[in-house]
Amino acid sequence: xxxxxxxxxxxxxxxxxxxxxLEKFLSEMxxxxxWLVERELRSMAASLYNQAVKDPYVGETRSPQxxxxxxxxxxxIEPMIEDLKAVGARVEVLAYEPAExxxxxxLKVAGAIDGELPDQIPWTNTSMSAAxxxxxxxxxxxxxDPQERIDRRNELVKTIxxxxxxxxxxLLELMG
Length: 176
Prior knowledge:
Strand content: 5-15%
Largest sheet: 2 strands, parallel
Order of helices and strands: HEHHHEHEHHEH
């Protein structure tokens, strides 16, 4: 699973008989120009896993390796690109990195000119550290109530240092 792989986490695969709302909307537009963002697959997987563990209502309980094994196919955008092209969409794929300029690059592709762009602000995508993530994973495995999970997470954030770190592909390896 090395190298860059396109990924889009919120997409459900479709069949010829079932269009997604997005595909239906795009197929009815006179001019179609959806943009998808490509992020290195392991980096995106680490970020999504982190979010699933952190979210008290999702409360992910699988190990990072098991989650990745079961969810990897859903992280790819190739099927979505193929489905969008099948309904006549022209698809633009932008690189996620450098993340701090993603909004400006997206706006330029959409037709904005330099004078219309917002100022670029310093931005770092942070996730829970491996230690906090593993502690929250244990909370999720033993606590069912979302509010209690939130309370436990808040206590763990106060005691585990560092509590947060930049998001990246190495997070899965740190936990493995």
